[in-house]
Amino acid sequence: MSPNLDREATTRRLVGLLARRGYPSAIAYNVVTTQLNAANFVADTRDRADETPVGAASSQPRRSQLASSTAAEVDDEHTRATELVRSKLRTLPRNLDHTKATQRLVGLLARRGFSASTAYAVVKAELSDAARGID
């Protein structure tokens, strides 16, 4: 982010990025504002007077709330990735090499904005299930 952006412009830009990746705007806004608050982000010096210390006790509830919302988002992301991989597995040729199938599926998830760790974990699990014949 550019250092000369104010908090509102930063929030709009980050919410827009998440919205383009498929997240609902309301959830994206909540995540962005929570993360900016947790990071104590203040782009304008006029807002620094209202800033609370980083180690203040008031920041503890935010962190626990953030951890629970982040865990739910990770589960949701994993579920969406699994659904995409399962639908793509149905259309892949049965005689396709395991390595090539992995590359194609991870590439699919990467183009959709999933992290590399999520993509590889989901693809590995789904390919092993498909090899055993589990649908």
Automatic annotation (TrEMBL):
Residues 75-123 form the RecX third three-helical domain. This is Regulatory protein RecX. It is found in: Cytoplasm. Keywords: Cytoplasm. It comes from the Bacteria. The keyword Cytoplasm applies. InterPro entries: RecX_HTH_3rd (IPR053925). Belongs to the RecX family. Residues 47-80 are annotated as: Disordered. Its main location: cytoplasm. Residues 57-71 have a biased composition (Polar residues). The keyword Ribosomal protein does not apply. It comes from Nocardia tengchongensis. The lineage of its organism: Bacteria, Bacillati, Actinomycetota, Actinomycetes, Mycobacteriales.
